[in-house]
């Protein structure tokens, strides 16, 4: 099969490498020239908001499946909300419409567990399922980023229901890990900062309200997200259509810092009192981990990497076993 991976960011690159390694033809598209990746991957420059460019790629390369990771993340959207909506909502609509017109066999759409964060205030201690009930007015998404991701999920599901397009949505938890470049995500920036401080002997002052959290939060390794993308491309009966990609485990901020200190013992951190709010400035603390059960059942996927493994990989790079 020929797979188009949109977005040559952290998860897109790792996904492209995995697909190429098993012999799939892979086209990796990004609005910026994609950095080199391992394996036989065709890199192209394309903006997902440009429908004609996407259609030309699908036609020229005979694309049969798509993994859509291209997006602006929450930090970028805070700086340019209009462009964020354009890339995340129109870009996803373009990918789905190109897939429909071209008879693409499956589209995997990257979403985020942040779509559920606004309901944390009304959830109990049970693992959080995918089909959370959300009161449209009082529990609307807690950020523009989450709103764009939810819109993308709805579009993917409606394209399935109306047109029979085979769509699978993956909600990754807070993604950490790095294959070398600087992180664009909030959790990635936190881990990069802690690792840099641990290496340099400088104290990291944790005063950015987006980088701290009260209570517990869950994290997922980017390599697991890439494996989940491959599993979602292959799954024979993805009936739920929406899956959480998470470990089922959570950690406090202090526990996260301690885990980095296990790898870099010189790490020193200065932090204010524990915030009353949850992760990345969201209003509520997380009441429970997300349930990874639907992904295990229907995608045959479970996360393989724990926090310690992700920290070692991010700190020491590719020499660590993946
Ligand atoms: N990193 C996280 O914490 C996290 C958590 C949950 C979900 N996600 C989702 O996972 C996906 C991948 O995230 P990532 O961590 O690899 O992020 P990333 O920032 O490393 O990669 C995103 C890529 O999309 C590209 N892009 C942006 N606008 C584009 C456009 N108009 N056309 C084409 N490409 C464009 C960027 O250049 C970048 O290379 C995203 O959809 C993101 O919303 C990420």
From TrEMBL:
Residues 3-245 form the NAD-dependent epimerase/dehydratase domain. SUPFAM superfamilies: NAD(P)-binding Rossmann-fold domains. InterPro entries: Epimerase_deHydtase (IPR001509), Lipid_A_modif_metabolic_enz (IPR050177), NAD(P)-bd_dom_sf (IPR036291). Gene3D superfamilies: NAD(P)-binding Rossmann-like Domain. It comes from the Bacteria. This is UDP-glucose 4-epimerase. It comes from Prosthecodimorpha hirschii. The lineage of its organism: Bacteria, Pseudomonadati, Pseudomonadota, Alphaproteobacteria, Hyphomicrobiales.
């Amino acid at each position: 099969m020929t797979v188009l991976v949109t977005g040559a960011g952290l998860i897109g690159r790792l996904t492209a490498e995995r697909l190429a390694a098993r012999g799939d033809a892979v086209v990796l598209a990004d609005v910026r020239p994609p950095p080199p990746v391992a394996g036989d991957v065709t890199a192209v420059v394309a903006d997902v908001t440009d429908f004609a460019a996407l259609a030309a790629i699908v036609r020229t390369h005979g694309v049969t499946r798509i993994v859509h990771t291209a997006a602006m993340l929450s930090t970028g959207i805070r700086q340019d909300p209009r462009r964020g909506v354009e890339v995340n909502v129109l870009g996803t609509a373009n990918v789905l419409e190109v897939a429909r017109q071209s008879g693409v066999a499956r589209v995997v759409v990257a979403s985020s567990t942040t779509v559920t964060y606004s309901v944390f205030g009304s959830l109990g201690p049970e693992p959080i399922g995918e089909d959370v009930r959300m009161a449209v007015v009082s529990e609307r998404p807690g950020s523009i980023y989450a709103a764009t991701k939810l819109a993308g999920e709805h579009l993917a599901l409606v394209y399935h229901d109306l047109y029979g397009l085979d769509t699978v949505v993956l909600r990754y938890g807070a993604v950490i890990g790095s294959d070398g470049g600087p992180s664009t995500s909030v959790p990635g920036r936190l881990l990069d900062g802690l690792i840099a401080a641990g290496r340099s002997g400088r104290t990291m002052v944790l005063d950015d309200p987006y980088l701290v959290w009260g209570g517990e939060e869950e994290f997922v390794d980017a390599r697991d997200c890439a494996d989940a993308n491959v599993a979602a491309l292959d799954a024979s009966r993805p009936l739920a259509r929406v899956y959480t990609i998470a470990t089922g485990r959570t950690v406090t901020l202090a526990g996260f810092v301690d885990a980095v200190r296990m790898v870099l013992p010189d790490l020193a951190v200065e932090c204010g009192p524990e915030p009353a709010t949850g992760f990345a400035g969201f209003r509520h603390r997380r009441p429970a981990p997300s349930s990874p059960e639907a992904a295990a059942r229907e995608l045959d996927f479970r996360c393989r990497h724990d926090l310690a493994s992700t920290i070692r990989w991010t700190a020491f790079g590719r020499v660590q076993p993946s």
